[in-house]
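Run log // design_07
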């Protein structure tokens, strides 16, 4: 080989080596740049291609009745979603999903062709639906674990407990009021995908650390069932529009039952009208009618202006006040304060108010909590309405004395009555007695809370004795009499107001409020029947339901009858009024 040729080959080798060196240097420099300066950016882009994170929430806490029986729980369910870009055959996929999930194919097609990386197909599917879709093995379709609220007692407790939404947020009732305690903690759920975009794992699993807290109610399932059963019977028997029952412990203020009719099942909300979801005993005001006479009697006795035997002339059934005339159902002449309550004389109530004055009545009603929120742990509580006595006309004063021109809620009315049962001490009503963490450890408890003394112990006992005469022969509440127990009570029959002004003809709220036993009340019960058609008097419509609830509940609570089983006998000869 000639020297010139050798030199040429060396030059070629040098140039090729130089080129490779330059290329290697460039590649090394680029690698250093990508790894050192662009590492975090590239890692993020890479993870976006095989990871997808979702905001998730831990399991919602459970709700129990007073005996630790489940009222609301969260169960594990599956939700189905899609990655539209990874769906190969939109039409075929939509048809297959529509058949298995019973969804309109057109809606599915819109979702599967959406310009989004992720869409929900159907959340909270049944186990059979999830199984059917899994068998199809459709590209771009994925499955996610979620939680669904379930109410094992169905209609029982429904308006009290309320319900939560698809995303685990409380929307009504206790579920809404205590949502901050019940809801699970938020965290990120990361789903891993393979090269074909199929999910194959979950970075995090459900953990008790993310679960919400549990609630224990004061309500007893057995007493709730007794109340709901009796309420349904009364509403249907008198062809009424609706009804409510509240059962409370007078000494504690704890709500033992809170029933509404019509019922609804929170497991299938779409089958019921939204107006039946509401806890009307807390949210809806109404005119109480003659049940207010027990508070009038308390005002008269506490002021010192009257005794149970103070007599008033009741004008033989008609009493004119200015241009208005107050009527009684029956004609009465002279009646004592005790008899005014027993026979539910409206004219007698007006005469008592004229004697003690509007200021005394107003202050007493205010002390009993009317016109104020009770502070019960339920959402949407109404204050009711009691205008200041300086704005009362003479007829207003008389009407308020027998429960018209004033509005109250069911919880206000029974809380006030409990003050009489509790020797004059007003207690704050409550529904939740304890909050515990997911492991059952106590976080917070709620004890009975005294609000104030409303009337003296002697006045409260005297009013209770007066109320026992309502149940006796000739009283408006004789149908509430219980065998073996001394009962205090008062009937109420209030004509409903018309939205256009005045009172609605033929529309009434029939009620009965009472407690037993009279000497040491353990139970207070309020029964309200809205717009009964076959009869509208509280002593006929609501009193029998009170008797039934009280009888069964007293036996359930092992509260024994009087010694000797003495039977309280009443006359059934005439129709009750009240």
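design_07 sequence
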């Amino acid at each position: 080989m000639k020297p010139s040729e050798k030199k040429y080959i060396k030059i070629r080798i040098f140039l090729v080596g130089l080129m490779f060196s330059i290329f290697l240097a460039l590649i090394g420099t680029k690698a250093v740049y990508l790894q050192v300066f662009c590492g975090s950016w590239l890692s993020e882009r890479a993870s976006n291609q095989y990871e997808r994170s979702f905001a998730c929430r831990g399991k919602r806490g459970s709700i129990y009745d007073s005996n630790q029986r489940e009222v609301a729980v969260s169960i594990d369910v599956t939700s189905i979603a899609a990655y539209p870009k990874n769906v190969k055959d939109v039409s075929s996929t939509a048809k297959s999903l529509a058949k298995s999930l019973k969804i309109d194919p057109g809606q599915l097609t819109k979702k599967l062709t959406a310009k989004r990386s992720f869409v929900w197909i159907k959340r909270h599917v049944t186990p059979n639906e999830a199984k059917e879709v899994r068998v199809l093995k459709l590209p771009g379709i994925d499955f996610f674990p979620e939680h669904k609220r379930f109410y094992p007692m169905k209609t029982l407790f429904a308006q009290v407990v309320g319900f939560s939404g698809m995303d685990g947020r409380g929307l009504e009732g206790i579920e809404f009021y205590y949502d901050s305690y019940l809801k699970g903690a938020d965290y990120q759920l990361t789903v891993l995908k393979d090269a074909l975009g199929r999910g194959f794992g979950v970075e995090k699993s459900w953990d008790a650390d993310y679960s919400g807290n549990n609630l224990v109610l004061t309500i007893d399932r057995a007493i709730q069932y007794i109340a709901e059963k009796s309420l349904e019977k009364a509403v249907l028997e008198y062809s009424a529009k609706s009804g409510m029952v509240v059962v409370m412990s007078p000494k504690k203020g704890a709500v033992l039952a809170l029933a509404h009719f019509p019922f609804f099942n929170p497991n299938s909300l779409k089958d019921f009208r939204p107006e039946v979801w509401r806890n009307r005993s807390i949210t809806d005001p109404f005119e109480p009618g003659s049940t207010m006479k027990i508070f009038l009697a308390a005002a008269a006795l506490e002021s010192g202006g009257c005794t149970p035997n103070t007599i008033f002339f009741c004008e033989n059934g008609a009493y004119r006040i200015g241009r208005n005339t107050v009527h009684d159902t029956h004609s009465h002449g002279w009646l004592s304060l005790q008899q005014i309550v027993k026979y539910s004389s409206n004219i007698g109530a007006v005469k008592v108010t004229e004697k003690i004055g509007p200021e005394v009545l107003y202050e007493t009603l205010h002390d009993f909590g009317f016109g104020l929120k009770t502070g019960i742990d339920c959402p949407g509580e109404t204050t009711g309405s009691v205008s200041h006595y300086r704005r009362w006309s003479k007829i207003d004063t008389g009407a308020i004395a027998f429960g018209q021109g004033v509005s109250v809620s069911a919880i206000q009315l029974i809380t006030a009555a409990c003050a009489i049962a509790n020797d004059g001490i007003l207690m704050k009503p409550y529904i939740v007695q304890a909050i515990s963490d997911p492991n059952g450890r106590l976080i917070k408890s709620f004890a009975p809370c005294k609000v104030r003394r409303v009337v003296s112990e002697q006045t409260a006992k005297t009013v209770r004795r007066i109320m026992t005469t309502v149940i006796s022969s000739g009283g408006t509440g004789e149908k509430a009499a219980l065998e073996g127990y001394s009962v205090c009570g008062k009937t109420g029959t209030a004509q409903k107001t018309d939205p256009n002004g005045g009172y609605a003809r033929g529309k009434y709220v029939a009620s009965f409020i009472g407690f037993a036993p009279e000497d040491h009340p353990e139970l207070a019960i309020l029964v309200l029947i809205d717009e009964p058609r076959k009869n509208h008097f509280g002593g006929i419509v609501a009193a029998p339901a009170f008797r039934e609830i009280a009888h069964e509940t007293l036996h359930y609570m092992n509260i024994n009858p009087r010694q000797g089983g003495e039977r309280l006998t009443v006359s059934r000869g005439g129709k009750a009024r009240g």
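Residues 168 and 351 are 56 Å apart (CA to CA).
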